[in-house]
Amino acid sequence: MASKHQHPFVQGIGDGSLDLESFKYYMKQDYVYLIDYSKVMAKAVVLAPDLKTMTSFSHALHETLAIEMDLHRAYAKRLGISEEELENTTPGPITIAYSGAMLAEAEKGSLAELIVAILPCAWSYYEIGTALAKTPGSTEHEFYGEWVQMYSSEQFGEIATHLINLLDELAQYKSEKELDKLEQIFLNTSRYEYLFWDMSYKQEGWPI
User: Fold this and answer.
1) Are 105 and 113 in contact (CB under 8 A)?
2) In angstroms, rounded to a whole number, what is the distance separating the alpha carbons of residues 30 and 19?
3) What pLDDT does 1 receive?
4) Which residues contact 15 (CB under 8 A, 6 or more apart)?
5) Tell me, what's the pLDDT at 40?
6) Which residues are catalytic?
């Protein structure tokens, strides 16, 4: 995950140097990404083997829909992005590819595969948020401070930790071949995470 931490988009959030237009682009793309991320979380509720696990995913789904997406809507308003513009954002190539990869794994019916598909997002955001929060002034920045506060919060960290612990439980009885497959899914969506930062930094859309 070190490459994500060092990406200029991420570093720019921490030290406040990120071009605001790149952040606007990111906010809109991440908003439509979170819609599909929420669908994957909802699928996890269906695949959960017991009520405790169902409840935990239901909680994570609520956190995404009611808190994380609310933050995006509030940011959009402050950044001059209308609600209509936000809701009608055209997903970029990486957004579609990344969301599609997660949704495809969710539809296979394996909770372990679903978790490794979304874990790079939850885990890396918490690690990045925690690291950036150590930068003096990062949590008070006019535009990026709330972002750092949210993703470094204990509340968000609990979601990442729960996913890691649940995956560890599910992986105990997997064969070597199955574990290799899970690792490949994790690596693929980790790469999409990096590409998402890169797309946002460069504000890359579809070729004209």
Assistant:
1) yes
2) 17
3) 52
4) 135, 138
5) 96
6) 121, 193
